[in-house]
Amino acid sequence: MARKKSTESSKHTVNPNVEGLHAEILEQPICDTLELNYMPYAMSVIVSRAIPEIDGFKPSHRKLLYTMYKMGLLNGGRTKSANIVGQTMRLNPHGDAAIYETMVRLARGYEALLHPFVDSKGNFGKVYSRDMAYAASRYTEAKLDPICQELFRDIDADTVDFIDNYDNSMLEPTLLPTTFPNVLVSANMGIAVGMASNICGFNLREVCQTAIARIKNPECDLLETLPAPDFPTGGEILYDPKEMRQIYETGRGSFRVRAKWRYVKEGNLIEIYEIPYTTATEPIIDKVSELIKAGKIREIADMRDETDLNGLKLTIDLKRGVDPEKLMQKLFRSTPLMDSFSCNFNILIEGMPKVLGVGEILEEWTAWRSQCVRRRVYFQLQKKKDKLHLLQGLGKILLDIDKAIAIIRETEQEQDVVPNLMIGFGIDEIQAEYVAEIKLRNINKEYILKRIQETASLEAEIEDLQKTLDSEARIRKLIVSELEQVSKKFGTDRKTTLIHESDVPAADEEDETPDYPVHLFLSREGYFKKITPQSLRMSGEQKFKEGDGLLAAYETTNRAELLVFTDKCQVYKAKCAEFEDSKASVLGDYLPAKLSMDEGETVVALCLPGDYSGNILFVYENGKVAKIAASSYDTKTNRRRLTGAYCDKSPLKAVRMLTEEEELVLYSTEGRALVFSTEQLAPKTTRSSQGVAVLTLKRKHVLDRAVPLAESPIQNVSRYRTRSLPATGALLREEDTGETQISMEI
After folding, report:
1. Are 92 and 64 in contact (CB under 8 A)?
2. pLDDT score for 268
3. Each residue of 231-288: pLDDT tens digit?
């Protein structure tokens, strides 16, 4: 109905500025627009542009390298980059600028890959510099690097499929038959539609050893031969085996990389000579300058970029008496000198994007490479069978060469030569064609005998190739042999070193966080504000959303830690300093979004644990109360979220931080109240403890709220106080209800 209505409501409009020009505007349902217009575009970006395939290349890389291969640049000399770009446009019609940028990233001079595929000459820029631009393609030269021999080996032996290019004028390979797992060796990043890929590079020698080990034993431990990624810019990986193992298993995760530096005592300076792969020298200098201007770093006299032909070097002049180790730890925490690399091993497998672990990638590569080797062996087998077939035909005329000559001489028409030879010797058309093409000088017994002697060796080779084709073990043995050759010929030592996180000194950020008094406000819907006393005095009434209101208010300092409890039995840890100073006239930060909570998760309470020396009280709807030691929520690592923060057996009614014991009033929906001391409860260390029964409830009634006795309107306290628990409490008298109920501060 909607589609019919859209068609009926189509209108014709006339452009008044162009005489005689009529434009027809048709309304189209949004679903049809997405299906017919957007989805093909999205799939094209995913499959044909942004996501690498099992050979480790995107289509743009593959088209460029194959063009250079066809230009004879694997063994020949360099040619102008502009020439290569122009030839590549026969396969990749996306403009010379895009093609040249692809070449730059693959070039040795750019230093973005551990094993570059383009041997470059001229200025190709640097991956570690944002402002160092590469020269135009007319000024630079390039050819294929020797390692490309392993990309194109046996490409003409039917190892991979070929397809027509965009205008059907030539063929191009769908994949390159790489003899090593290039997908793990070459770093690759791509952003598609609705998905992305970010693959870090690994050391070639380690990858080959790991591939061999996995072929021989699928259950081998990858970390033994492939401990961590390796980057062309070097640096140091803060190594956590558990974290790395998770990345290897899932294909997702992150790890930290930091710069390498040395202290030069003679000049009282620090030299930084390797930086993380994810950053550049300019952002580092900009951030350090910003920190110096803000007064957060006072130990630096000057910082400059001294990068030259010898490589990267950032120099920091120190003021007198500065400890270089402490300064670098501070710079690691607050500048891009230490950065995280987020892994997302998203690869196209037979046209479908899949996120795979390292083991799964090696398994897929081995299966694909086995297919390539099998196709190569089959191609060689057919070639030798064809040659044997010709020699067998030649052998049949050996006994009577004169008869063959007579048949040819007595045949009047050329087109009858082959048929007459077929009839005369009982051979097929291919064999007869071969015999008919023998040169006159070769019609002698010696030549024919020499050719026929090749038959025995050919039959042996064919038998061996057939055995290889029928044996998976032989195929795997060939792959292992090729991997060993590649590792020996092109393998290099690691550039990125590993430092165990346990060896890294703990970060002391306390000195960097400014400390001053603040007031905290939390609304019922989860909006949070941090306001300084001065701003609070100058402000008017607190602003809340319609239907929202104040849930809790605290006085503390900017260095205080926060525990934010949610309705999903989780607690999020944060620091006041992470929130910007606010005003009463704004709504504040929405905690579910600020703390990256799960979808639908809401805030139920906020606590200030201080030094985690007290207890946290949890009051549940079923009348139970749990007293949990605050130390149970203290963690040595920087974990931001703890699951199982409290018991999930009954809805939570109140949470209160206890720095000292106090008396509370529990109210039930029956109209009863009970006064008890928190001293009567024994603290528990298990966060999910159900607690103990305090308020006994009748059927269909629940605990309504909890209020500190000092904030309650109760006059006759002894009526409601109890010494033994659990208890039902006493019915509220009118003088103890008060005109308004004061809810517990949580």
Report:
1. yes
2. 92
3. 999 999 999 999 999 999 999 999 999 999 999 999 899 999 999 999 999 999 999 9
Name the residue among 657, 528, 507 with its Cα closest to residue 588. Answer: 528
Q: Please check whether residues 664 and 547 belong to one and the same domain.
A: yes
Q: Please tell me the distance from the alpha carbon of residue 113 to that of residue 106, in angstroms, as a whole number.
A: 7
C-alpha pair distances (Å), 430 with each of 163, 394, 672, 743:
29, 11, 107, 100
* pLDDT at residue 23, rounded to an integer: 56
Q: Which residues, given as ranges, of the chain have pLDDT below 50? A: 1-21, 509-510, 741-746
Does 59 lie in the same domain as 27? no
Residue 376 resides in a domain: yes
Average of per-residue pLDDT values in the chain: 88
What local confidence, expressed as pLDDT, does residue 6 receive?
A: 39
Q: Which two tokens stand for residue 247?
A: 């990345």
- Return the closest-CA partner of residue 523 out of 543, 503, 507, 538: 543
- Within a domain: residue 710? yes
Active-site residues, by number, are 139
User: 79: exposed, middle or buried (C-beta count within 10 Å: 0-12, 13-18, 19+)?
Assistant: middle
Q: List, in sequence order, every beta strand (DSSP E) within 478-580.
A: 497-500, 517-523, 527-531, 550-557, 561-566, 570-575
Q: What tokens does 555 get?
A: 């006085």
500 close to 239: Cβ distance less than 8 angstroms: yes
Residue % of the chain over a pLDDT of 70 = 93
Strands 615-620 and 561-566: unpaired
Domain count, the chain: 5
End-to-end CA distance of the chain: 54
697 and 664 in a common domain: yes
